[in-house]
Write a structure and sequence with these properties.
Layout lengths: L1 E6 L4 E8 L2 E9 L11 H23 L8 E7 L3 H18 L3 E5 H8 L11 E6 L4 E8 L2 E6 L6 H11 L6 H9 L24 H12 L3 H6 L1 H27 L3 E5 L6 H11 L5 E3 L10 H13 L23
Parallel strand pairs: 1-4, 4-5, 6-9, 9-10
Antiparallel strand pairs: 1-2, 2-3, 6-7, 7-8
């Protein structure tokens, strides 16, 4: 079975081809124009998807050595994401489905991240815990089997990726904030500024990053611009460290509470090198199996959509042409297609 995957939930236009569960190609175009605006501009993102999607799909097919006539099914993101950008990919997939007379399947973007670890680890087995940590989500899911997902932790306010973006803006750095903070943290002292791991009343597992954002704001308000610049490495290192330590703290607690010692991490923040380094040094020696996707599968990509769609189609699922884009779709609603 050959499945074409399409992803347009935000500012990456991506297409991928999977054959019998094996990834053959994955082509992604990232819209760098948004960095000058300090965040994704929905109208610009939608227009860019419309301009690029045909070329990206053709490139993915060419790299896979297959043509449209060889495709058996199409998997496409239908939520969560920006409404306009989701519509571009969804309508394109529907058009191909009608024109080629093949089924298509709507894929929850978050389920795609959950399956991203299977791209390089096909033997990664159930049950496992999955930390989805990105710009819009910071959650932990207990995955008992395909289609059986139970959320055991959520963020009460900002997600970790948002904390990186907002902290970067406060320190005068560009969007996206995560890579900028990581780059400027190199050589900095992670203990220079005493930021602390945020605790959430009534929950050992939930996340909260709004207080940390306030802490970096007040810290910078007490400093002149030149003082911020001269202390930038230490500021970034300290801020990054407490975000990473918060995520690691919750990994330990989730394993302790559930007894499940197999853990996957997915989403854009999973690309953070300091996070991966500390997991290798602190978490894995405690006999906890932790899996990260390859770097290119951490951010939004069609490879994860294609592999998740392939799994769903194998289970006899397809979508109706009436399927709508759902910007606030939850992973709890993954089978409402």
């Amino acid at each position: 079975m050959i499945v074409l995957g399409i992803e347009t939930s935000c500012d990456e236009t991506s297409a991928a081809v999977v054959r019998d569960g094996m990834l053959l190609s994955n082509v992604t175009n990232t819209q760098v124009i948004h960095s000058q605006y300090g965040g994704v501009v929905p109208e610009i993102a939608s227009r860019s998807h419309e301009e690029n999607i045909q070329t990206i799909v053709e490139s993915a097919l060419s790299a896979s050595k297959y043509s449209l006539m060889d495709i058996d099914a199409i998997a496409v993101t239908y939520g969560p994401g920006l409404f306009g950008t989701l519509l571009v990919g969804l309508n394109y997939a529907k058009g191909l489905s009608i024109g080629l007379d093949i089924p298509f399947i709507g894929v929850n973007h978050m389920e795609g991240h959950l399956f991203a670890n299977l791209l390089d680890n096909p033997e990664f087995s159930y049950p496992f815990l999955c930390m989805l940590v990105s710009g819009g989500h910071t959650q932990i899911w207990e995955v008992q089997q395909y289609g059986s997902y139970h959320r055991i932790a959520n963020t009460r306010d900002d997600a970790a990726g948002e904390a990186f973006d907002k902290g970067a803006r406060i320190m005068g750095l560009r969007y996206p904030g995560g890579p900028e903070i990581e780059k400027n943290a190199m050589g900095g002292n992670p203990k220079a500024f005493p930021f602390t791991i945020p605790r959430v009343r009534g929950s050992e597992l939930d996340f909260s990053f709004s207080g940390l954002k306030t802490a970096i704001l007040y810290t910078c308000k007490k400093m002149t611009e030149s003082e911020i610049q001269s202390n930038l490495n230490d500021l970034c290192a300290s801020y990054q460290e407490v975000i990473v330590d918060t995520l690691i703290d919750r990994i330990h607690k989730a394993v302790e509470i559930t007894g499940i010692r197999r853990f996957s991490v997915a989403g854009g923040v999973a690309a953070n090198k300091r996070f991966r380094e500390k997991v290798d040094k602190i978490v894995k020696p405690r006999s906890i199996e932790v899996s990260f996707p390859r770097m290119e599968y951490c951010t939004d990509n069609a490879a994860m959509i294609a592999i998740a769609g392939y799994e769903r189609i194998l289970n006899g699922e397809t979508s109706s042409l009436n399927l709508k884009a759902i910007p606030n779709l939850s992973l709890d609603e993954v089978h409402s297609v």
